[in-house]
Fold Cell wall-associated hydrolases (Invasion-associated proteins).
Amino acid sequence: MNNKTKQNFNYIFFLLLLILFSPIYSSSCSSTKKVRTQNINKVVETAKSYRGTPYRYGGTTRSGMDCSALVYHSFYSVGITMPRTSDAQSKEGKKVTGNNLEKGDLLFFATGKKKKQVTHAGIVTDTSKGNILFIHSSTSLGVTEDNLSQAYWNKAFLFGRRIF
């Protein structure tokens, strides 16, 4: 076999491999997206199952929980162990700007006197109709959903993080 024939053979062999394995890669990608979507939905469903749970600073149960415990338990439902404080949680995943937020993203707020210090966290539950709804554990209402466009939350919002 001369060099040109070897090159042609290698080229054809490579193309055949590419053709054979491209459907596997394609189905693998769509399968990964499906699992991601399922995990996001499970995180949000878990968070919503805590609606009405009273707020308790440092609390981690249905008898009372704080915002970081809600995040912790919601992500734990899909096998992701998050840190236990909102400040530590704010360092996980990758940063997301407000106009790119998606369902399942984490939101971080400065609700204390320090304007840039993370003191509160929530989980995006819906981004349809131009609204960003999120669930969190409020000191006054317990676990509840709010709209990020509300003046208080919009002013306190620092950034989002994407875990998935």
